[in-house]
UniProtKB/TrEMBL annotation:
The organism's place on the tree of life at top rank: Bacteria
Bilayer-crossing regions: 6-27, 39-58, 89-106
UniProt keyword list: Membrane, Transmembrane, Transmembrane helix
Name of this protein: Branched-chain amino acid transport protein
């Protein structure tokens, strides 16, 4: 059985994670932002996802320039095509997972 200390630890981790991630959304829904700031906020998810994507497509070694990972880049192409046509995140993710699985299976 789990001791009460572990339960307190899990509860504390939940609260510490919840406050900075969820609470701002609750406050932001009730606030009216200027149009320019809303436009800025609209681009944030795209910028964050692009940064994560580029980080995963490149391998960086100390003292060497970044190198493009070919399998991940090839898997990105069908996911990008599906994203352009469907704009459905679930289809994009499933396409990327299937593409990288097939590439790793055959290459």
């Amino acid at each position: 059985m789990i001791s009460t200390e572990y339960l307190y630890l899990i509860l504390g981790c939940f609260i510490v994670t919840w406050i900075p991630r969820i609470l701002p959304f609750a406050f932001a829904k009730k606030m009216n932002f200027p149009a320019k700031f809303r436009l800025f906020l609209d681009y944030l998810p795209l910028c964050i996802l692009t940064a994560l994507l580029v980080q995963n497509l490149l391998s960086v070694s100390t003292g060497r320039p970044p190198v493009l990972d070919i399998p991940e880049t090839l898997a990105c192409i069908p996911a990008l095509i599906v994203g352009i046509y469907t704009k459905d995140l679930m289809k994009i993710v499933v396409t990327g997972i299937i593409a990288i699985a097939l590439i790793r299976l055959f290459i």
